[in-house]
Design goal:
The chain has 330 residues and is an alpha+beta fold. It has helices at residues 2-18, 22-25, 140-157, 159-171, 175-197, 205-227, 233-236, 238-260, 267-299, 310-328, and strands at 31-39, 42-52, 55-56, 60-63, 68-69, 73-77, 80-88, 96-100, 109-114, 120-125, 131-133. The chain folds into two domains: 2-25 and 158-328, no CATH class; 31-139, Immunoglobulin-like (Sandwich). 54% of the residues lie in helices and 19% in strands.
Length: 330
């Protein structure tokens, strides 16, 4: 019965992804502003802005105090426009940074300032809070809160990662296999997230993203095989498959974290809380699905036998489209 309920939920969830809404419209990758002080009062600025097709989002960073900026140079990369310029300011501490145009978008901005003395500030600006005051110093608590939220948002808006977890929920039968499967996935992606972020292991991001999509296809096929009484390795040992593909998903998380970077002086702390945010979001998602499944079980609705395969085919079809799309971007 649980697999039927999860199947119904998965189909509803997949249909919701195809409709316009906040999740599908949200800019998954934030804009990024970086200032590096190479001598007192002189900063090199990098401003990376997401693009929608050929259109650059109309975002502009503005400081409240006296600053002098050079003419920006612009270059285009896949999915973003990068502008660089130099900025002179007596002091940025105490000034207010505002991102003009941010309130009209659904993206966030991660801002980071690195000073010549080795200190740094990292802040997050959102459409509801497009301004932030640059403090004289940043604490570990500030870093923890920021990266916890970034990790939480990344998993909740990372539809491919959630779809993989959803397929695992359909595959694992019973509480113990389910706990073992989710634990294996968590351990695996935590390992590669740490190794890749710290530079111990490097993987090209485009093939990783394609294989992540392919991992969803594989699990969806295994769900169909189990329903046809042809259970494969994934049905017999879902924790093993979760661990193996979890290593790849960890590289995907690391790629997203690499887009924002880690604050100097707080790298282990930021990495830890980003990962905790990912885990919190993942557990919240699993809890929500199982909670809804429990509610539907009480309704005692028994769909026909063929229905159990429909969600797996839907998941596999979406993931196969992602696979081909990502391969085409190599």
């Amino acid at each position: 019965m649980r697999s039927l309920v999860l199947g119904c939920l998965s189909l509803v969830w997949l249909l919701s992804l195809l409709l316009p809404g906040p999740i599908s419209a949200h800019e998954v990758r934030p804009a990024y502003l970086e200032l590096r002080e190479h001598q007192r009062g002189a900063f090199s600025v990098l401003w990376k802005v997401p693009m929608r097709g050929e259109m650059r989002l109309g975002l502009t960073p503005v400081f409240s105090g006296d600053t002098e900026a050079s003419e920006p140079m612009t270059r285009l990369v896949p999915g973003a426009a990068i502008e660089t310029w130099t900025l002179n300011a007596r002091a940025l501490q105490g000034q207010t940074l505002t991102i003009d145009g941010l309130t009209a978008t659904m993206t966030d901005v991660l801002a980071r300032i690195e000073y010549a003395d080795g200190t740094a500030w990292t802040g997050r600006l959102t459409p509801s809070e497009p301004s932030a005051t640059i403090p004289a110093a940043v604490s570990a608590v500030d870093v923890a809160g920021l990266y916890l939220i970034l990790g939480l948002e990344h998993i909740l808006f990372g539809i491919d990662h959630l779809l993989f977890v959803f397929a695992l929920l359909m595959l694992a039968q019973g509480i113990r296999p389910l706990i073992g499967t989710i634990t294996a996935f968590t351990v695996a992606h935590s390992i590669t997230l740490a190794l890749a972020t710290l530079g111990v292991v490097q993987m090209p991001q485009a093939p990783v993203e394609a294989v992540i999509a392919l991992s969803i296809v594989f699990v969806a096929v295994e769900v169909v095989h189990r329903e046809q009484a042809r259970a494969g390795i994934a049905a017999r040992a879902p924790w093993l498959v979760a661990f193996g593909f979890g290593l790849l998903h960890g590289f995907g998380f690391a790629g997203a974290l690499g887009e924002t970077g880690l604050p100097p002086g707080h790298i282990p702390f930021a990495l830890l809380f980003f990962n905790l945010g990912v885990e919190a979001g993942q557990l919240a998602f699993v809890g929500a699905v199982l909670g809804l499944a429990a509610l539907l079980r009480r309704a005692l609705w028994m769909p026909p036998a063929w229905w159990r395969r429909v969600p797996a085919y839907a998941i596999g079809s979406v993931a196969m489209f992602w696979t081909m799309q990502r391969i085409a971007m190599f």
